[in-house]
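Here comes an entry:

___
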Amino acid sequence: MAIGASADARIAVLVDCDNVPPDILDHALRVAAQFGRVVVRRGYGNATTLGVPKWRDALVRQAFTPCLQYHYAAGKNTSDLALALEAMEVLFDDRADTFCLVSSDSDFAYLCRKLRERGATVHIVGESKTPDALRNASDQFFEWAPLEQPAAEPEPAEKVAKHEAPAPKPAEAKPAVKRRPRSVVEAVALLTADTSEGKVSLSALGNYLRRTEPSFSPQTYGHSGLLSMVKTYDLLALSEDKGVWYVRLSAQAAPQGAPTEG
């Protein structure tokens, strides 16, 4: 389990939507879930940002409350101020004791320091451009990088040249496709990063996966259970000790490696 993690911690995830892309949201929730239960979800941005379909869809899908902030004067970022004020309000109201701020803006460094002075734990999820001033103001910094999209392979020439569609084949019963979601390897990497033995129990992994995605079920991916699911990963290794199964990254797994679904 990560530094400062507590099963009873109450987490507030506050997102600076004007500063980060919507793709970071899923990763931020996976990071936050390892520290406890997410009880506050807020996304702050101006009308232009929150009007973007990808931001709107991401906030709705992950059950965030969008906090729209209008610009009252040119050059004034009211979203940052709203985020900072609500963070202090959440702390003083005792709604959360751990904060996950999603931003690469060093202006939040002072907010991080004030939250920590009041006894709160602060984690930052940001991009590689995040200044040291913000990184060092948090208890733990998690860097996010967008996934590279594989280049589309060109269709074979003979397929392009052929105009007639092939005759349909008789329908055959196909076995259930067993998929390996990338999130499982990412979860193991996060949960084992700060452990001396580099492993996490299978039950703790399952709890974490259900916390990050309440609808998670191995059956959805064609597996009978989590144990059989983990066994299909080349980047994960299993071990058993006194009847308890443990999972770690395999020797061939890169520090941030993860399989694609397939």
